[in-house]
Amino acid sequence: MVRRLRGRAEWRFFGVLVRADRRLGVAWWVLLVVRGALPAVFAVAMGWLVGAVQRGEGLGAPLGLMGTTFVLLQVLTPVHQAVSANLGSRVSAYLNDALAKACVGPPGIGHLEDPELSEDLTVAREFDQGQTGPPMYLNVDFVAGSLVELVGGIASAVVLFGFTWWAPLVLVAAWSATHWLLRESGVWKDRNTAEVRAAQRHATYAYELAVEPDAAKELRLFGLADWTVRRFTERRRRLFELQYAATRLRERPMVWSLLIVVVANGLVFWALGSAAIDGRLPLDRLVVFAQVAIGVGMIAFGGLNWALDGAAAPVAAVQRLEPAMAPAGALSTGHRPAGAGPVEIGLRGLRFSYPQADRQVFDGLDLTIPAGSSLAVVGQNGAGKTTLAKLLCRLYDPGSGTIRVDGNDLRDLDVDAWRTRVAAVFQDFLKLELPLRDNVAPAGAPEADIRAALADAGADDLADLDTRLATGYGDGTDLSGGQWQRVALARALCAVRQGAGLVLLDEPTAQLDVRGEAAIFDRILTATRDVTTILISHRFSTVRHADRICVLEHGRVVELGSHDELMALGGRYRTMFDLQAQRFTAEVDEEGLSYDTL
Ligand SMILES: Nc1ncnc2c1ncn2[C@@H]1O[C@H](COP(=O)(O)OP(=O)(O)OP(=O)(O)O)[C@@H](O)[C@H]1O
């Protein structure tokens, strides 16, 4: 029973309140209990005053108590609201910190792609954006307000015991039934079903398409403005329909609730009235009991369940994710040092499919990459080129087969140490809203290395090292796609200067102009001369410069050799090369200089 209670989302929510901020958490509870008790105290003070008037006693003490209670009732409400808002923000921060740690903690990335975790991940990421319910700072206030009412109702019931034992029981049962009936009707739950969440997500997505700058160009170009607005309003209408349907579920339980409440109150007030008429209940006590009998009604309806569900859902989601993400993103950890210098790579019988995917990306891949050499990997879209780079970074482990680096199984090496030996430029490289210096060397590097890496990437005149690469900061600036790519290249080249022995370049020049590409690629080759380089590219002008080229198809290497060897072979590489060659010829720029684009 206790275990079941502790497993409930509501219980977890209350546990997090004090953990998020002990002082605010304690203050929140104290204020809650005091505020809850005040209406009952006020009723007792009123009865005391009436009695004092009847008996001709001094009125100072009862009036003082009434005044104090009244003032406290007025003052404590805004104080409690302020405490709730602050505490709610701390709870948000606590959950955000926990989620951030759970996300970045595992050495792998499988936990971020696991479909079984995606629903919790969505709730945990979005709970404070106000799309699926009020943000946490408001929710904590709603919960506070509802709990104050609940405590107020219970305090009134306790006082009502002074009249007769059954009256508070009947009233508490009747008013509690309103919660039970409404909860059973599923109103709160039905407002938050997977279908409602999906409708919410679609509506939000369409809305973001309309208002975010990213999509602005193509929306206009393809004449999609009206389509987006229509889509948004349709999805939102569907969302409202679902929510309205959920609200209508309330109708019948509401009638039942009213019936129960009317009967229970009728009974208690009939008992109070007849006791007063019979002279068994003097006026001062009647005043108190009549007030508290009304006060018990504070238990009713309210938004407690709704507010609690909203506030507790992200807490429960984060607490489920914390233990689930670690194993989903886990990688067995080795303890061998990762060595130094250029890396030799040997792939033997490599098989790999993504978690929850049926398709094998690699199906017995064999490949050796000598230390200090450069290898270009080509193949059709989806052939597995980026996946190979991710496996070499050890973001996933192969299903079977081995990846050997310098003769050691990659799994036997210390993961963090290995990653310091790898530098990579991925297609979706990181753009940090930080100064250029931090974008090139996030973990820090001597200024001379940063400048040299920027020069190698053809980005030495982009901006001052301390210029923030983001707009909206006053001191910031944004870069073009190609300029950003140069920064990402500089980051990898800087890592080489810091000792990385393997460089993975996944379409590193895709966004560069032809002239820039030709010039930069020579410099990249020089800068990576002493390390092992794997270049993934569809641009054969770049690929041909590698020592060897491998063609990936159906999860295996189907051709391997130098540009000349593969051209002479007349196979896949030759076909792809010739196809591209038909579209490009040697370009001559305005200064008469010729650039070899193939
Ligand atoms: N995170 C993922 N989860 C499931 N499947 C994935 C994931 N990433 C890639 N895939 C699948 O794995 C296969 C190989 O993808 P990969 O990105 O390695 O191809 P690629 O050769 O780099 O393609 P491209 O030339 O388009 O960049 C594809 O079929 C892709 O759909």
UniProtKB/TrEMBL annotation:
Name assigned to this protein: ABC transporter ATP-binding protein
The entry's keywords: ATP-binding, Membrane, Nucleotide-binding, Transmembrane, Transmembrane helix
Source species: Kribbella sindirgiensis
One of the Pfam families matching this protein, by short name: ABC_tran
One Gene Ontology MF term: ATPase-coupled lipid transmembrane transporter activity
The ABC transporter domain, residue ranges: 345-579
Top-level taxon: Bacteria
Annotated transmembrane regions: 26-49, 255-277, 289-308
Membrane topology type: Multi-pass membrane protein
GO terms for cellular component: plasma membrane
Residue ranges constituting the ABC transmembrane type-1 domain according to the UniProt record: 30-298
Location within or outside the cell: Cell membrane
